[in-house]
Every structure is written in C-alpha cells, then in structure tokens.
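hey can u check if this looks right to u? its 275 residues, i copy pasted from the old doc so theres a chance i mangled smth
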Amino acid sequence: MFLTFGEQIAHWMKNPQELYLKPFHVIENVYYVGNYWVSSYLLDTKEGLILINATMSQTANLLIDSIKSLGFDPGKIRRLLITHAHYDHCGGAKAIHDLSGCEIWLGKHDEFYLTESRYMMMFEDTVPEFKVTNFYDYSSVIDCGDIQIKPLHCPGHTPGTTSFFFDVKHKGKVLTCAHHGGIGASFLARDVMARSGIPISMRDTYLMSIENVRDIHVDVVLPSYPARFSGYDFFGASESDDGSGDGFIDSEAWGRTLDAKRDELLAMMLKEEGF
C-alpha cells in the first residue's frame, strides 16, 4: 500500500525501531550515528564530543545507543549543533541535553519555530521543548580545538537553515567536510507555503543560497538524508569502505547534490505552472 510522506513519517514515529541503522565511522573523527531516514553526526574533538542534529524525539534512544555502541559516552557531548528547527532534526534535543547538559546551537532566524510558530516544525507536538543556549555567529568559527567548524547561513528550507564546513587531516592531506543544513524543496511547494505563511520569495532565497555555496570545494559530503542523497551511495560507501574513510571522498558530490536540489525546485515550480 502506498503511503504519503506524512503517513510514512507517522508510521515511523510509531515504529522507530524500523529506522535503526548500525552506526559507522565516516572519516577522521567523524561518525554517522543517525538512522536510515535522517542523519546525525558525532565529531570527536579535543574540546569534547560535538553532535550535529538530534533526529526525531522517537528515535532519540536509537541515537544514544548508536553513540554508546561506538565506544563514546553521550553524557560527554559538549555541543549539539542543530541545522534547522524541523522536528526530525531537533526532536531529540531535549533528551540529549538532559543526558549531557550540552550547549544547544541554532540559527537565530529559526528561533520563532520554538517561540511563535511551532506548528511550522510539522509534528510539532512530538518535539519536547528545549532551550537554545547559543546562536550561530556566521562571521566566526566554532572552535573545537583540532576542528574548526565554519557555520554558513543557507536560508530557504527554513529561514535559519545553517550549513557546516570543517577540515580534517587524512593521510597527509587536508580534506574539507560539509553538511548542508537543508536542501529539501518539498517545504517550498506553493500550497505548503500558503498554509505556513512563508512568502513565495523564499524560493528565490533558496536558489540564491544554493548558488552561494555551490562552488565551495568539498571533499566529503555529510548528507542530511543519506537514503535520498544524490551525490553517491553514502550507505553503500559505508558497507564497502575498508575503514580508511577513502570510500567517502568524492570532490564532485557536493556540486552534483546542489545542482540536483536546484533542479528539483525548478521542476516543481514549472509543474505548478502547468508546464
């Protein structure tokens, strides 16, 4: 039986164990601890553990167990970096904070999701309330000792969508890793925007954001939704990689991914106009 997007998510919320994915090492000090649907990454730095996104509240236990299974203590997470305030990226934030007392970071332009328009999170009633302790300063880096994370404002998917860029040393070379904070076009459908009150101009903002970061050199893409990642087979790379991290290096994947997401929105806009 065919399930709509909303029905599929509702099913997974009732059956979160179906989303379990064995965690794995990506590249130097970077680990995948998310699930089959939505990603979360653990960075092991000199300044402590950094977690990128907290998945859904229903899968928070899967996230915590994945961190433990890799030999790390989730109680020692120092910072939780949230890319944007949708339920599937921040739903587990309270659970992570309650366990570790970590700082919680978010883009300032998404603060209204938590204070004024929680309904725009989608499934907002499943997101336990949490307090943001830090907002990103896009003019500086987040200093984690041996890893310097550069946040970039990439509005469009949400007003405060934030992407992260950082370098790792790999076999004598410096490689750039990147995690785009939100490049799904579904929330920019005309009917969705009308219901949420988001101005249609946000589509232009989204396209401009893609253009602004499209040509940044990236060696290792850390996708938000690996199962729908158009850059290459991310999960396949995890299965075939010999543990060295080489399987995740693809300097063309970033451009391919952003081009595909740009074209996805343009195609949707043409379809809405009857073309």
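The chain is about 30% helix and 20% strand.
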